[in-house]
Amino acid sequence: HLLRWVSFKLSYYNEYKSYLREGGQMTSQTLKYTIPSTKYSPEDTRYGIPQNGVNLPATRYTTNEWNSSNATQYLNSSTERTASENLRDDAERLRCETAEKTRRTQNDINKKLQDRIDIITYWKTEVDRQLQKTQQEIANLQKSKKQLEQAHVSTQLPHEVATTCLKHREGRISIDLVHDDVEVQLLKEVELIEHIQALLHQRILETDSQLRDLNKCKYNLEDDLRDKNISYDLDSRCADLHNGSLGMTLHNDSVMIDPRSVTPVKYEAFSHDNITNAEKQRATTIRQRELNEHTMHTTSNDLHKQNEIVNESFRIRINEMIAAKAKLEENLNQTILEIASMAENIAALKEAIRLKDRPMKVAHMRLNTRSYRPNIELVRDPVQYGLVEEVAQITDSIDALKAKLDDSVKRMAELEKNKKALEEDIAVKTNSLNIDQSQCLRLRKSLVWRSLRPAKMFGAMTVTSRTLPPSEIEDIN
Which one of 111, 120, 357, 442 is most buried, by most CB atoms within 10 A? Predict the structure, then answer.
């Protein structure tokens, strides 16, 4: 278009010159004046040929060359302006693109920073929760150890009672100095108490070892939590930085990946391992506490049972009829209490079975509702596994409760039958009781009343419902 425009201008200019030339001639003719003409052409004058006696410069250009030069200048000027405009447009576009790219990158980094803060917050919360649980478990284990130590001390009095009874019986003379059932049971009681003392001492040593492992786990959790708090503060400060923040400087040394850094997988694995170890140690601690409580409960029952056997042997030795009546009454009272307890137990089992209905429905509704998740959202996530496990767990719990309920009902019938038999037997022996108690039995009862206090303390410590495996029960036995 530019070339056509220049060509048009040149053509118009040549025609205009011709018109002026003709018009000038007509004017001179009107004035009777003739413009002198030259015999030389413009091509001749460009080489310095004189015209009308005047010497012209050596170099001369034609009009076409002059017009062509102007057109070339116009074209070059237009080309340069176009290139400049294109460059300015490219520069403007580049500024916009880089500004938008920087903005997107910064926004993406801000989002990643927030995601990282959320991850740190999650793990910090988890580690802190595990730390709190571990500290609580340490306190619980220390309390269990203290109870073990108190139980170990409290066995000294039953041991003293048994040995005192043996010494008193050494004062028997003549035919009464026999190795009877009372003496056999007293020797068993002494042996049982010494075995209980050794077992409690072993449990104390095991508890000390577990306390050391728990404290080590606690130290790891505290160290991890401290690092996470520092990292949380640093990333929070980074998240608060913006382009208008004051005091910002360049740190070229930081624009690299620190060789000491770890991958996110290793980061999460580290905290996961600490948490897993904490859960494992707490589970071990819980088993240790349950074993301690079971040991105290079992030894208390064994000691109490042996104490009753010794007392019963004394009563039998003094007067069979009195001992028989007292034993029957004692068994009757215990049976009545057990019947009441068993009735409460049956009612509690029925209520427990009934209470399992709503959690089962909740789990089923959750599973059914989550089955409608569309497409890729139908994930076998921990929630799904947890719900399936919850349903199985509730089902197992209901089956176990029903089985225990059946056993309890049968045992209730046996207790009622035994209660009736005891009441009939006591009625028969009521008129047969007519003999005084001996001084030795009264002394025994006085000492036994004091020795039963540790057993009651043992019973108060029992706060578990878990059934120990046979291996642990055999170890205790």
Answer: 120
